[in-house]
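Researcher: Please predict.
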Amino acid sequence: MDTSSLTVTSPPPDPAVLSGGRVAVVAPFSSGQYYRAEFVHRGWECVAVSSATAALPPLYRGGIAPVGYQGVVTHHGDLDETAQTLRRLRVTAVVAGTEIGVPLTEQLAARLDLPGNDPNTSHLRRDKGAMAAALTRAGLDAPRSLSTDRLQDALSWAQSLPGVGDFVVKPADSAGSDGVCFCASHDDIRAAWKRLHLIPNAMGGTNNCLVIQERLRGSQYVVNSVSATNLRGAARHTVTECWADRRTPGTHLYDRLDLLHRNRLVPRVLTDYTVRVLDALGITNGPAHTEVMYVPGRGPVMIETGARPEGFYDPHSMREATGSDHIRDAVHAVVTGKPRRLAADRPRATVAKISLIAPYDGVLDGEFVERLLSLPTVRGHVGALEPGGRVQRTVDLLTSPGRLTLAAEDPREIDHDHAVIRAMEISGLYQGGAR
C-alpha cells in the first residue's frame, strides 16, 4: 500500500476549518471520485476503499485512479480486517462515494466509532420498499408499495388496490432508473417480472426481491441535502439544492433538471418534507439525494432516497455557477462538523442539467461534439464525450452518453441551447447506428 505524502496542487486550504484529518472514501466512483480533490483542498488526506475488481459491478470496474490517495484499501469481505487497516491508517472519517458503498461505509464508521448512519438500519436507505414502509410508519406520505420475491404476490397486491391502474416495478436496491418498468396491466407486471427477477442489477446485487409500487403522477423534483450530528447527537439537515426534474413524456428517461431558488414556495415545501424523510430513514450524517413527486391533492411524496452524493454530477460547473456543489457541501460538513449555512438567494445564475438521449447504438460525431460543447451556455459535462466514442441506446440514466451543465443570466438562453442539443441528437450527433 502506498502511504507516501500527497503533493497538493489545489489552492491553499481554508485555515478556518479543522485540519489534519484523514478520510476513507468507500467506493470512490461516479461523483465520489471528486471527494479526494476537495478534501485535499481542505487540508485532509484521502484513502480509497473498494471491493476487489472482480467483485465490483461492471459499471465501476477499473474506476479508481490511485494517484493522490494515501492508500487504496481492498475490502475482501472481512469487516474487522478492513476496519483494523483503516485504524492503522488513522482514518478520522468515512464517506460513501456512490450507492454500492453505503452499507460498508456505515459499518466501518460504527466499528471505528466515527460519525455515521446506524448500520442496523442500512436497509432503510437501500431497499426502496423498506424506505416507503419507514415513511408510512413515521406518518409521512409515501408510495403504496410491496417488496416480494413472488410474482403472484405482486399480482394479488396490485389487484387489491382500488382505483390504481398504473404501477412501477423495479429492483429493490439499484440506482439510476436501472430496471424501472411502468406497468398498466397484469400482463405488463408479468413481463416486467420476467425481465428483472433474479438477474444482476447495475449496483451488483441480484434481483431476488422486486418492488411494486403505485405509479405517482405529478411534478417531479430532486432534493440534495447534507446532514451532520451535533455534540448532543441530534441530526441537523441542510437542503443544498432543489431541482425541477423533467422526464421525456411517458418514460423515465431524464431530459432536463432546472435548479430552483431556495426561497421560493415549492423548494420550501420540498425542504420541509425532505427533512422529515431524512429523519424517518435514519440519515444523520453525510449527503443524501432524494427524488420527490409533488402529487396534486396529496403534496410531496418520496420516490426514493440515496445516502450518498448525487450521481452523474459535475461539481466544477456547479461551483462556477453557484459557488458550491453537493460534494463541497458534504466535505464542509465532515471537516467542520456541521452543514454549510447557505444564502437564501443561491443560486446566482439560472442553471440546468441536460441529459443526452441516444435513440440507438452508434458513435459520437466529432464535429457535432465540438459544436455541442461550444454552445454559449454549456459550462461543463460528465460522460466521455469524445469524437468516435461508442454510445448505446439510452434506456436509463446509466446508459445516457453524458450530461451537460448549462448556466446563464437569462433563462431563455438555456431554453434555446436545450432545443439546439435535442436537434443535434436528431440531425447527426450519433452516427452509425440502426434507427
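Model: The longest helix spans residues 411-427.
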